[in-house]
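Protein chain data
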Amino acid sequence: MFSNILVAIDGSEHSKRALAEAADLAKLSDASLTVMTAVPDASVWTLGGGYGGLVAPISLEDLNAQVRKEYEEMLTSAVASVPRGVPIEKVLAQGAAAPAILEQVEKGGHDLVVMGSRGRGEVRSLMLGSVSHHVLQASPVPVLVVHAAEE
């Protein structure tokens, strides 16, 4: 079975379901669980608009700090939802999600990655390739891709 499971979350329904599945797997196999998320880098491009001085100036540093805080809160909430008795660690990475997940697999010695099939950036993933697809193609360990339950 697995002994060191990594679950990547982004706040989407798919990642919430992935966390539940990973917690169940960890409990059944006496594995440790690492819950991680990657804080995207805010850039001038993410601010959009702003033509003609219609938008008040925004500090990129302040925006990055706010985004980081939101991801920290999401990660803390996710960890709190894992049933007692599962050894758990949390990791807050910075940057693009797929490379951060693959780096954590190597650094943490994980033997399974669990993640949602679709995340927050569904439109972006259609243009650039989804995070789950990238991780599936490049991971040196098995990847379990979980779909959210249909309503």
Observations:
- The longest strand covers residues 32-39.
